[in-house]
Amino acid sequence: MKDVRIADAQPWQAQHWKTIVSCYSRSPWFEFYKDELEILYKTRYEALMDFNRACFEWVVKRLRLPVEISLTESYKPAYSSEEEVDWRGRFSPGRRVQLDEVSPVRYRQVFEERTGFIPGLSVLDLIFCTGKEAIKYIRS
């Protein structure tokens, strides 16, 4: 992971930021968070891991999660349950949480009138729509 470099041939960060602004500028909490989040999209990162970690740390701080973040020194194919909790397969693009696994708590989404409520949309959606109350929706 640490060796994956970001290809900057295309202005992907600027495109991502414009999309976020376009989708969420009318959300209740966008103005509150936009300046600090924009910094993530204007900072040049060499490694994808560095960008991902900066984004993860931003979310953890905004949700006020008591999480200690550390990097491993080497890859372990498996962890014993006594050592650590292995979250690697829990949150990934390849794994979709089944709706019967959780009962999503509804909140007002920006495009809800057009699309209906979409559970598990994104943590940015939750933060921009619920602000400092976001953690309550995650813990429900």
Describe it.
The chain is an all-alpha fold and 140 residues long. It is 43% helix and 0% strand. The chain has 6 helices and no strands. Helix 1 runs antiparallel to helix 2 (30-42).
The biggest sheet amounts to: none
| SS element count, helices | 6
Termini, distance in Å? Answer: 32 Å
Order of secondary-structure elements: HHHHHH
Describe this protein with a few key phrases.
140 residues, mainly alpha, globular
What's the arrangement of secondary structure elements?
Blueprint: H1 12-24, H2 30-42, H3 48-63, H4 112-115, H5 123-130, H6 134-139
Summarize the structure.
By secondary structure, the chain is mainly α. Helix content is 43%, strand content 0%. The chain has helices spanning 12-24, 30-42, 48-63, 112-115, 123-130, 134-139.
